From TrEMBL, chain A:
It comes from the Bacteria. SMART domains: TGc. Residues 158-222 form the Transglutaminase-like domain. This is Transglutaminase-like superfamily protein. Gene3D superfamilies: 3.10.620.30. It comes from Roseovarius halotolerans.
UniProtKB/TrEMBL annotation, chain B:
PANTHER family: BLR5612 PROTEIN, SLL1039 PROTEIN. Pfam families: CP_ATPgrasp_2 (PF14403). It comes from the Bacteria. InterPro entries: ATP-dep_Glu-Cys_Ligase-2, CP_ATPgrasp_2, UCP005522. Residues 73-450 form the Circularly permuted ATP-grasp type domain. This is Circularly permuted ATP-grasp type 2 domain-containing protein.
Length: 266, 474
C-alpha cells in the first residue's frame, strides 16, 4: 500500500502577530512498518528556525511567524509506503528508557473512573489478548462521538462523560495500560478512510509494550490494530507530547483555523 | 554541652593553637581590641555601601537584609586544601559522568548500582534532556559543594549543589572587604587569591560554547529579575565578567539561535549562564505560565545552538535521595575510592530506614529530598516535642519525601564578639568551574557561620553570617 498525504493548516488573525513560534511534529519517520518516500513541510508567512529530534525520537521543527502577519499557512505533503506488520512495531529503540512510558501525566492519570473501568473488564491484562480486551471494554464504556469532547479533557473527564473522540479513547487506554504495568504511548498519525479522502483532523491511537513482541498498536476507536492504512507521525506520553502543533505568540487575537487533510491511496 | 567537644579550627580539641592560624594569631594578639571593633563596624558599613543584601522568603517586613560579616578569617592550610580539592574534583567528575549516563544509556541502573525507581520516580529527572549531548560534554559548569568538618582531617560532603549554586559574590565581596581593611595580612600569610573567579568563570563558560559560536563566544547572564533573592549576585557577576545581564523578555529565537536585543538589533548568545530554574526556563516546553523564560530556548538547545549553564535537569544529581548513593556513583564512574566522605543517610522511602528514623527523631536531622535553604527541616536535638510530633506525621504521610542524617559535631571557628573571640559552628562551600579544559576549584569559598551560640544552622535565611575563607600558599 502506498499513501499520498497532504495536510494543510491555515491560520487567520484579526490583529497582527507581533512575535510567535510554533513547534511542529508533522514529519513521519521510516520504520519496518512504513517507509517515507518523500516528505516536505512548507511555511507561508513564517519561516523554519530549526529542526531537532525530541526525547521521543520525533522529528520536531520550530517555525516563527513573519512579524506583523495576520495569516500563517503550514503545508505538509508526501508519500509513504506501508507494510502490514499486524500492528507490531517491534523492539523499543529509545532514546527514552522504556520505563518512561509507565509515567502517568495529568491527562492520563488513573483515578477512580479508570480503576473502576478496569475492574469491569475481566480479561484485561498486560498481554496481547488482555490489551485487546481493554480496548474493546473502553469502546463499549465510552461512546465514540465526533465533536463530543474538549481537546483539554483528561482520561477521567471522558470516562465520566461516557463519550469522546480518538484522543480520549487513547488517553483512557494509556491510563489503564500503565495502571496494569504495561508501558504505553500516544501515537498521532494519519488514517486512510474508505469512505472519504478529505478529513479535518489527524487520527490518534495507542501503542503498548508487550514482553516478547515489543510495541504493538491499538486503535481503540476503530477496534483494530493498525494496518497498512495507518501512518505513524509522532509519539509521546500523551497528546501534549505528540501533538502536531503547539506554540506561543504575542498579538494575533481572534484566531480562525482551517485544517484540511487528504489521505489517498496511490 | 561543653564547647570543647567540638573541633575548633583555631584551637583544636585541646586549646593548642593550630599551625594555619599561627601568624594570624600573633597579629591579632598585637592589635588593639577597640581598633578591631571599629574595623568590624567599618566592614558592616562597607557591605551596606556595596549593597549586598539578601531577600528572605516568607518575610514581608524587612524584605532586604544584610548578611552579617565577621572579620575573623577561616584559615585552611595548603596541604589541607590539596586534599580537599582533589576530593572535590573527583566528585564533580563523577557527577558529570553520572548526568551523561542518566540521560543516555543508564549503565549505572543496568549494573544494579542504583535502583531504577530512584530515577524513574524522581521529579528531578527531566525527560527533555534524554539524548542531549551538551556542548563540550559538560552538564554542571558551576558547582558548589557544601562541606562540614568534624576533626583535623575529617571533612564530610553535606550537599552537592549542581543546579544553580549561589553565594560566590559573598566569597568575592568578603575578600574585597578584608583586603581593604587589612591589606598587610594577605602578604604576611600568603593567602591564595580568589579574585580571579569572574575571569575564570567567563573563560570556563566560553570554553563550553556550541559549535555555532564564533572565535569570541558571546556569554550572557540570565536573571529572573530584581525581585529574586540573588539578583545582586547576578548583576555583580555579569558586571565582573563584562557580559550582558538579561531577562527572559530580552531574548528570543532568531535565525535558529537565541539572540538578545541590543542597540544594534538582535545578537546571538552562545553561552547563557542562567539563574532561572528549569521549570521557568521555557514556557513553550515547561511551565506555560512562566514569564521569566524564553519560549523555544530548549528547542535551540536540543538543536545544538546554545549552551545553557548549568544544563537543565542537573537536579537529578543533587537530589538528597541520590546523595546517599554518591559513594557508589563516584566508584562506578571513576573506578576510584571516594576521597571525600558522605554523611551516613537514611532514606525514608525504605521501610527499615523509616522505622529507624521514627524511633530516633530526637537525635537526627531530617531534610526534604528537594528542599534547600534550611527550610522544612527538623533538627532533632534542638527541636521541641511539638515540632518532633509534627514531623512524625509528615514522615508517615510522605516518607519518600525525606532523608535523615545524624547530627554532626560541626567544627567551630572563632567570631569576633563583644566579649572577644567566641567559637561558632561553620560550614564551607567551595566553588568549582568545569569546562573541557578542566576542573578548577577556587582556593577558598564561602564560609557560613551560625552566629547564635550553639546553633548548627548556618543558612543566611536562618540568621547565619559569613567569613572570609583563606587558603594559604605552600
Amino acid at each position: 500500500m502506498r499513501l499520498k498525504i497532504q495536510h494543510s493548516t491555515h491560520y487567520r488573525f484579526d490583529t497582527p502577530v507581533k512575535y510567535g513560534l510554533q513547534q511542529l511534529r508533522k514529519t513521519p519517520k521510516s520504520s519496518p512498518q512504513q517507509q517515507v518516500i518523500r516528505w516536505q513541510t512548507k511555511v507561508k508567512n513564517g519561516r523554519k528556525e530549526l529542526e531537532f529530534e525530541d526525547f521521543h525520537h520525533n522529528t520536531t521543527e520550530l517555525i516563527s511567524f513573519a512579524p506583523g502577519t495576520t495569516e500563517l499557512s503550514v503545508i505538509s505533503e508526501g508519500e509513504v509506503a506501508l507494510n502490514d506488520t499486524h500492528g507490531v512495531i517491534g523492539a523499543h529503540r529509545g532514546p527514552a528508557p522504556l520505563w518512561l512510558y509507565l509515567r502517568e501525566t495529568d491527562r492520563t492519570r488513573a483515578k477512580a473512573g479508570a480503576r473502576s473501568l478496569l475492574r469491569g473488564i475481566e480479561a484485561a491484562a498486560p498481554t496481547l489478548e488482555g490489551l485487546h480486551a481493554l480496548a474493546d471494554g473502553i469502546r463499549a464504556a465510552v461512546k465514540y462521538e465526533v465533536g463530543s469532547s474538549h481537546p483539554e479533557w483528561s482520561a477521567e473527564d471522558a470516562i465520566e462523560a461516557g463519550r469522546g473522540v480518538c484522543q480520549d479513547h487513547t488517553h483512557i487506554f494509556l491510563a489503564c495500560a500503565r495502571e496494569m504495568g504495561a508501558p504505553a504511548r500516544y501515537v498521532s498519525g494519519y488514517l486512510m478512510l474508505d469512505d472519504k479522502t478529505v478529513q479535518e483532523a489527524m487520527h490518534a491511537w495507542a501503542e503498548a509494550h508487550i514482553e516478547g513482541l515489543g510495541w504493538v498498536g491499538f486503535d481503540v476507536s476503530n477496534g483494530i490494530s493498525p494496518d497498512t492504512r495507518y501512518v505513524r507521525v509522532a509519539t509521546g506520553l500523551d497528546y501534549g507530547d505528540a501533538s502536531p502543533v503547539s506554540g506561543s505568540r504575542v498579538g494575533g487575537t481572534g484566531e480562525t483555523l482551517e485544517v484540511q487533510i487528504d489521505v489517498a491511496q496511490q | 554541652m561543653s564547647e570543647t567537644q567540638y573541633f575548633d579550627e583555631m584551637w583544636g580539641h585541646d586549646e593548642t593553637l593550630r599551625q594555619p592560624y599561627r601568624q594570624f594569631h600573633d597579629w591579632l594578639h598585637r592589635e588593639n581590641p577597640a581598633d578591631l571593633r571599629a574595623k568590624q563596624r567599618e566592614a558592616e558599613e562597607l557591605f551596606r555601601l556595596t549593597g549586598i543584601t539578601f531577600n528572605v522568603y516568607g518575610r514581608t517586613e524587612a524584605e532586604e537584609r544584610l548578611i552579617p560579616f565577621d572579620i575573623i578569617p577561616r584559615i585552611i592550610s595548603a596541604p589541607e586544601w590539596t586534599k580537599l580539592s582533589r576530593g572535590i574534583e573527583q566528585r564533580v567528575r563523577a557527577i558529570n559522568a553520572f548526568l551523561h549516563d542518566i540521560y543516555h544509556r543508564q549503565e549505572i541502573i543496568r549494573a544494579g548500582r542504583i535502583p531504577k525507581e530512584m530515577i524513574s520516580r524522581n521529579e528531578a529527572f527531566l525527560p527533555h534532556m534524554i539524548g542531549v549531548e551538551p556542548p563540550g560534554g559538560i552538564y554542571t559548569h558551576i558547582v558548589g559543594i557544601d562541606l562540614v568538618r568534624t576533626g583535623p582531617g575529617d571533612f564530610y560532603v553535606l550537599e552537592d549543589n549542581a543546579r544553580t549554586p549561589s553565594g560566590v559574590s559573598y566569597m568575592l565581596e568578603n575578600r574585597e572587604t578584608m583586603l581593604q581593611m587589612f591589606p598587610e595580612l594577605f602578604s604576611q600569610n600568603r593567602v591564595q587569591p580568589v579574585q580571579n573567579y569572574p575571569t575564570d568563570l567567563c573563560r570556563s563558560l566560553a570554553a563550553c560554547a556550541p559549535p555555532a559560536a564564533g572565535s569570541q563566544p558571546v556569554v550572557a547572564v540570565l536573571t529572573p529579575g530584581i525581585y529574586n533573592s540573588a539578583y545582586f549576585e547576578h548583576a555583580f557577576l555579569a558586571d565582573q565578567m563584562g557580559v550582558e545581564l538579561v531577562e527572559g523578555h530580552d531574548l528570543r529565537v532568531v535565525d535558529g539561535r537565541v539572540a538578545m536585543r541590543t542597540t544594534q538589533g538582535y545578537q546571538p548568545v552562545d553561552v547563557l549562564y542562567r539563574r532561572v530554574d528549569d521549570d521557568f526556563l521555557d514556557p513553550m516546553n515547561f511551565n506555560p505560565d512562566s514569564q521569566l523564560g524564553v519560549p523555544g530556548i530548549m528547542d535551540v538547545y536540543r538543536a545544538g545552538g546554545i549552551t545553557i549553564a548549568n544544563a537543565p535537569g542537573t537536579g537529578i544529581a543533587d537530589d538528597k535521595a541520590i546523595y546517599s548513593y554518591m559513594p557508589e556513583i563516584v566508584e562506578f564512574y571513576t573506578g576510584e575510592r571516594p576521597l571525600l566522605e558522605n554523611v551516613p543517610t537514611w532514606r525514608c522511602s525504605d521501610p527499615d530506614d523509616l522505622a529507624h528514623v521514627l524511633e530516633n527523631l530526637g537525635d537526627l536531622v531530617v531534610k526534604e529530598v528537594h528542599g534547600s535553604g534550611g527550610y522544612g527541616m527538623l533538627i532533632g536535638p534542638t527541636a521541641t516535642k511539638a515540632e518532633i510530633a509534627g514531623f512524625r506525621k509528615k514522615l508517615k504521610a510522605r516518607p519518600g519525601n525525606y532523608i535523615a542524617q545524624p547530627t554532626l559535631s560541626l567544627s567551630t571557628v572563632p567570631i569576633f564578639s563583644r566579649q572577644g573571640l567566641a567559637p561558632r559552628h561553620v560550614d564551607l562551600r567551595p566553588f568549582v568551574l568545569v569546562s573541557p579544559e578542566g576542573i578548577r576549584v577556587t582556593p577558598g569559598g564561602l564560609t557560613r557561620v551560625a552566629l547564635k551560640k550553639g546553633s548548627l544552622v548556618v543558612n543566611s535565611s536562618q540568621g547565619g553570617g559569613t567569613k572570609d575563607t583563606w587558603v594559604l600558599g605552600d
